Amino acid sequence: MLGEDSPVLTVLHSVDQPPDLERIEKYATIRYTDETGLTQALPGADALFVYDFLSTALPGAWHAADRLSWVHIASAGVDPVLFPGLRDSDVTLTNSRGVFDDAIAEYVLGVILAFAKDFARSLRLQEAARWQHRETERVAGQHVMVMGTGPIGRAIARMLRAVGMRVSGVGRTRRENDPDFGVVHPSTELVEHLPEADYVVAVAPLTEQTKGAFDARAFAAMKPTARFVNVGRGELVITKDLIAALRSQQIAGAALDVFDVEPLPSDSPLWMMQNVLVSAHMSGDVIGWRNILVERFIENFERWRTRQPLHNVVDKQLGYVPSPAV
């Protein structure tokens, strides 16, 4: 329930980076805190805005949450806040689904083109002032398998189909004649269908079912010419198995935006591999993205304070916002 007067909103932000919530200050008592003060900022709070979406402080402070009815996280992934205490409570959880879809799709198209057109080698040759004529690959007609059939996966599928690539999906259940993927294979058959793909894109949410899905067995099933792209969660991958597959040329390359340990340690061999593209968890972070995240929260806050149904309500047992039937 909301407070008898104005509701109390706690905002968890990183150090010296609180969001601009001036527009709603007249409607709520706002407590800004970084993770060191979260335990003190939760008692009496009706809602929590997890603006620092990488923070893992909430489980340790959960005992102080004595009046929460709503938690909103400024990301599409909810694994940092989906711990047993929140999952088993009556607290509603919402996320920022929809903000990153097209930006991440553009990133995926970009790294696929970078592999096909061998841009990394072109840059190395340019730095060495070395002229070397080469032939490159077409992307049209190549088969991309996308694990994760939510909004981001669908945006990726639409963008890749627009440049002539063949796309299939991997999701919870089998589907035929899907408008974006054509065929969706059940995740239980991932390894069985990996040999069909020239590119494999991981964008699935992190759940008990998807954690570690890309292991030695999965990489061994892929074509030696295939490339792997991870824009989902680092924990979808067994990193040591990926490194071994790259070193032994079981797969041809990888573009990695997320890692099981972030920042990626400086001694990781992934940094120095010429067939690997590394980016710093930024595939969806386009200019103005933080402002968009705040706007999405404010839209939901207005619905919450006026007791309208919230957008992007997470099924806490599944670990993501269910997509409507297509």
UniProtKB/TrEMBL annotation:
**Keyword vocabulary terms for this entry:** NAD, Oxidoreductase
Coiled-coil annotated spans: none
Q: Which domain of life is it from?
A: Bacteria
Q: Keyword Disulfide bond, does the record have it? A: no
Gene3D superfamilies noted in UniProt = NAD(P)-binding Rossmann-like Domain
Which residue intervals define the domain D-isomer specific 2-hydroxyacid dehydrogenase NAD-binding in the entry? 110-283
Offer an example of a GO molecular function term for this protein. Answer: NAD binding
One of the Pfam families matching this protein, by short name = 2-Hacid_dh_C
- State the PANTHER family in the record: 2-HACID_DH_C DOMAIN-CONTAINING PROTEIN, D-ISOMER SPECIFIC 2-HYDROXYACID DEHYDROGENASE NAD-BINDING DOMAIN-CONTAINING PROTEIN
What is the name attached to this protein's record?
D-isomer specific 2-hydroxyacid dehydrogenase NAD-binding protein
- Which species? Stackebrandtia nassauensis (strain DSM 44728 / CIP 108903 / NRRL B-16338 / NBRC 102104 / LLR-40K-21)
